[in-house]
Amino acid sequence: MRPVFRLLSTELIERIISEARDILCNLGMEIHNDGILSMLSDHGASVDSGKKHVVFTADIIDKALKTAPDSVKLDDVMGRQTHDLTDHNVYFTPGSAAINILDPRSGEIRKPSTADYVEYAMLISRLDNIASQSTAFIPADVHEKISDSYRLFLSLLYCEKPVVTGAFTIDAFNVMKDLQLAIRGSADELRKKPLTIFSCCPTAPLKWSDVTSQNLVDCAKYFIPVEYISMPLSGFMAPVTLVGSLVQHTAETLSGVVLSQLTQPGTPIIYGGSPAAFDIRYETTPMGAVETQMIDCAYNEIGKYLNLPTQAYIALSDAKQLDAQAGLETSMGATLAALSGINSISGPGMLDFESCQSLEKLVVDNEICGMTLRLIRGIEPKEDFPAIPIFEELLKEKHLLIADHTRKYLRDEHYFPGTVIDRANSSRWKEEGSLTIGDRAKLEIERLLDTWEPTGLSDDVLAEMTVMMKEEAAKFGMDSLPHENL
After folding, report:
1. Which of 67, 76, 364, 415 has CB atoms 3.0–4.6 Å from 374's, for a disulfide?
2. Domain presence at residue 3
3. Do 272 and 228 form a contact (C-beta atoms < 8 A)?
């Protein structure tokens, strides 16, 4: 039996959804995009173009939910399906868009470079328990106008896994879309085999900016999956109660569902978010707070009630180093998320309130992901009944180390973490250098990078992508790309 964690009753879920719908159909939302306002008006919404304000109708919401698909499938660079985001299927992906990296050599938080990103992409390709990559951090050695497309370019160049990404400008989307078309060959093939998920973020409270709403619409036109990242801050930019924050999250996310489905009925969407319980003592947004994790797991239940795939920023930490706090917050979040059945769990590798990525933490988190994936497989009998023959052999042989039953089920029943996790006795640990988890993580990074292999993309596709990226960089005064000099 698969273990499942729940926080909300069906009655409470229905009340939260009802209140969120009332907000959309009475208070409405700000949407700073004239084209989208016109589209909503055409479908019967009440629009005040001067105030950039729209009041939804129940009919619009119902129609959007009816056409929204109940699963999102993803394929890797080579066209092999890797994800089916539906039901309680669980997949891990690193946190996205950090502005800093924890330097693996100095231990200092600093701005990342292209060299860091290349190492990250190569590393993530080798981590078996993290199913997709993300555009995890923003290289500071390229013009900010190409930072979105450049990190997607590097991801596709050095790792075959699907990518969770996003754009901070409207123009960047076209380049990012064209990179995917270069790999798939046509818009029809990209629709059949989605390669990326775009994060699209409403602004709390109850607002869509021009950029994020346009990204959402542009993705729908090409059937590129989107995850809505509503970010209510409990007690600051949202009600202080968890239920109140869930009402706001539901309203903002439902509005995104409407925009996607009105643009292109049936476009793939993911019911996601990155809320936080605001800590008034430090004026911070702790992603490792238990209340933050509770909101994540609860809105996942709302998404599943609506029969939609789900996502959450969870399984990450607010710590500044790879320390006990990092392990505590990440493992707790990953465990709760997996038990809740959140389909796409974003967070591994992340520190410092979503602002920093760490390669050492990423390889440690890979093991946390492996343990939680084992956990949700649950406990099932495997030729354990009748029990007497097994125990007769145990009593006769005094052990079961080489028993047929042991050899048949050992690898399936037990998860064996890699060398990052220390399971040696103390004397052996001392003999092997008394290494800390950070020491072991550094050694594992070196091993994985040494065994990296290039993707299977053809030279023609690689050349087409490179030309595309160089042309974009040239618009902003760059005559070469940093990765070419590595």
Report:
1. 415
2. no
3. yes
Cis peptide bond N-terminal to 386, omega within 30 = yes
Q: Which residues pair with 29 in a beta bridge?
A: 54
Q: What is the CATH number of the domain that holds 324?
A: 3.20.20.480
pLDDT single digits (tens) 306-354:
999 999 999 999 999 999 999 999 999 999 999 999 999 999 999 999 9
Tell me, yes or no, whether 333 lies in a domain.
yes
Phi, psi of 91 (to 5 degrees): -140, 140
Q: Which two tokens stand for residue 225?
A: 């999956």
- Report residue 75's pLDDT band, with 50, 70 and 90 as the boundaries: very high
* 460 in any annotated domain: no
Range of the domain at 333: 67-376
Task: Give pTM, 2 decimals.
Answer: 0.97
CA 26 – CA 45 distance, rounded (Å): 11
Distances (CA, A) of 453 to 75, 228, 362, 449: 19, 33, 19, 9
The answer to the question of residue 130 being in a domain is yes
Residue with tokens 């439902």: 254
DSSP string, 333-377: HHHHHHHHT-SEEE-TTEETTTTEE-HHHHHHHHHHHHHHHHHHT
SS3 213: helix
Number of folded domains in the chain? Answer: 1
